[in-house]
Specification:
Largest interface: A-B, 24 and 23 residues
Order of helices and strands of chain A: EEEEEEEEEEE
Shape of chain B: globular
Strand content of chain A: over 45%
Distance between the termini of chain A: 36 Å
Helix content of chain B: under 10%
Order of helices and strands of chain B: EEEEEEEEEEE
Number of helices of chain A: 0
Distance between the termini of chain B: 41 Å
Low-confidence stretches of chain B: none
Oligomer: heterodimer
Largest sheet of chain B: 6 strands, mixed
Low-confidence stretches of chain A: none
Mean pLDDT of chain B: 91
């Protein structure tokens, strides 16, 4: 098992462009989470999936953000019409059902210029 | 509301013990965590404690929980240079174990 992986690790984009990130969870984990971390802060919860169902969304997840997990395995997070305030590290985590521990990937660092 | 607070910086001498403190506000917190983040790396779960426990020890790590004061601490014995990192205190509730609320992190630096 290689752990949670995220792609790309870094993304630089111009304001107004759309970006998509991918997360591959640990293979037997049916829960997948997205967090956002800005400089000097702890991660903030965005959303989570139980298999393919998106069960909770934070108010931080504006209409420009959409997350999917179509087959209950990998997930994508898309940001439309990016803004400079979207610049952050986007972290993905996974866990088994009702597990206490969430295992985090290395993150995708987004820079919006 | 949900809030987790911790001091921003801690500097200790190599070989000494480090104690990182945290306070939380949600009285329904069920699980309390300590995560470690090294530069360029993801978050690593160090340890966690259930709210019905007072203490948990795991090798060089000791977690103390004062539920009455909503205070959590992480003690690292015999601090080494490899312990330099940002340490995040975090909590979740039984009803929303999916969502972990993190503090802003304490940056631990080690002096020779």
């Amino acid at each position: 098992d290689t752990g949670v992986s995220q792609d790309p690790r870094h993304k630089i984009t111009k304001r107004g462009q759309n970006v998509t990130f991918r997360c591959d969870p640990i293979s037997e984990h049916n829960r997948l989470y997205w967090y956002r971390q800005t400089l000097g802060q702890g991660p903030e919860f965005l959303t989570y999936f139980q298999n393919e169902a998106q069960l909770e969304k934070s108010r931080l997840l504006s209409d420009r953000f959409s997350a999917e997990r179509p087959k209950g395995s990998f997930s994508t997070l898309e940001i439309q019409r990016t803004e400079q305030g979207d610049s952050a590290m986007y972290l993905c985590a996974s866990s088994t059902d009702r597990a206490v521990e969430q295992y985090f990937g290395p993150g995708t660092r987004l820079t919006v210029t | 509301g949900e809030d987790v607070e911790q001091s921003l910086f801690l500097s200790v001498r190599e070989g000494d013990s480090s104690v990182i403190n945290c306070t939380y506000t949600d009285s329904s917190s069920t699980y309390l965590y300590w995560y470690k983040q090294e530069p360029g790396a993801g978050l690593q779960l160090l340890t966690y404690i259930f709210s019905n426990m007072d203490m948990k020890q795991d090798q060089r790590l000791t977690v103390l929980l004062n539920k009455k004061d909503k205070h959590l601490s992480l003690r690292i014995a015999d601090t080494q240079t490899g312990d330099s990192a940002i340490y995040f205190c975090a909590e979740s509730t039984y009803s929303s174990a999916s969502k972990i609320i993190f503090g802003s992190g304490t940056r631990l630096s080690i002096r020779p």
